[in-house]
Amino acid sequence: xxxxxxxxxxxxxxxxxxxxxxxxxxxxxxxxxxxxxxxxxxxxxxxxxxxxxxxxxxxxxxxxxxxxxxxxxxxxxxxxxxxxxxxxxxxxxxxxxxxxxxxxxxxxxxxxxxxxxxxxxxxxxxxxxxxxxxxxxxxxxxxxxxxxxxxxxxxxxxxxxxxxxxxxxxxxxxxxxxxxxxxxxxxxxxxxxxxxxx
Length: 198
Description:
The chain has one domain. A hairpin with a 5-residue loop joins strand 1 and strand 2. It starts with a helix and ends with a helix. The protein contains ten helices and four strands, in the order ααββααβααβαααα. Helix 2 (19-32) runs antiparallel to helix 3 (80-88). The longest helix is centred in the C-terminal third of the chain and has 23 residues, at 156-178. The model has no long low-confidence stretch (mean pLDDT 91). The chain is mainly alpha-helical and 198 residues long. The strands form two sheets. The chain has a two-stranded antiparallel ribbon with strand order 1-2. The chain has helices at residues 2-17, 19-32, 80-88, 96-101, 114-117, 122-128, 138-142, 146-151, 156-178, 181-197; strands at 38-44, 50-56, 105-107, 134-136.
């Protein structure tokens, strides 16, 4: 209950306080390239329920859920505005909408697409999906430059499946073990600090 109240309070205040920034982002996206402001993609949420996540669009517009689902290095699909949004993580601010809707939390395991959730070991799958997915967590902070890491691999898909995904799952399981309001506040502050340092 306390966690959900914290989510509602901070997400609601965030949307109000940041509304000028959100409107500026939306305008920049529309002026930079044709297509919608938001990118919607199917992700797997709490107890395995699928939902469509909100993100500010950072790539050229294409039919939903088509093309590679990994972003590697300087992906040619990324727009000029999109590159800035990704570098500063501002594209994730749209997920405050998902927090208000109740499909996500401010802090929790990052929601994955179904094809990668299918690779989760059974025990970890049940554990990680026992809580609402979040905008940030231990894994999000540790792997904030994931696309750069994958760009160094000769086989990014294999590296993600065999190296990155297991490491992220271990960190997400750690979050579930330590979940609580104080942990959430600590991770929110660490996330803000990491963004500001960039």
